[in-house]
Amino acid sequence: MEIQFDVLRNACLPFVRKMVVRNSGSVEDAEEILSEALLVFLTKRKPLSKATPATYICAVASRLWMKELRRRRTALRHCARLQWHTEQNNPLRSPIEEEAVLCAFENLPEDRTKQILAAFYLDKKSMVEIAHYFGLPSENAAKKQKFRAIQNVRTLLRKQVPEAFQMS
Questions:
Q1: C-alpha to C-alpha distance for 88 and 24, rounded to whole angstroms
Q2: Most CB within 10 Å of its CB: which of 109, 119, 134, 148?
Q3: C-alpha distance from residue 36 to each of 50, 87, 98 (Å)
């Protein structure tokens, strides 16, 4: 059995290697896929009607590699989305720019915008508490007010500290 296993492996390796390398893989990937295909062949042990064992193993290897490629592409897309999302939420700023933004926020006039943001971010109040405190009809109204407050602060800060908001 061991001799047949080596013969099957050696017969399938050139095809699998060529197929994997052509489809953006490496030689190591090809050997791993071939090992998985051989494992499938040994565990399934279905009677082969028309296909030879080598053909069956190559077909299984091909399907395994295409499945692996789909998994990798999906992972890459998720990774790219996560990186984009992180960059959008946490733009890289120097400590000096961060300090300038904080100083500009502190120097904003004491109005409802600043009070809502301070209640949410500094006092850690929930939206229900903010709605009750400011006399708003519901939690959703408080969320809308907070969103508008953030937009207003961004606009003011872009005017006061434009260098901190420039995209490179």
A1: 31
A2: 119
A3: 22, 38, 52
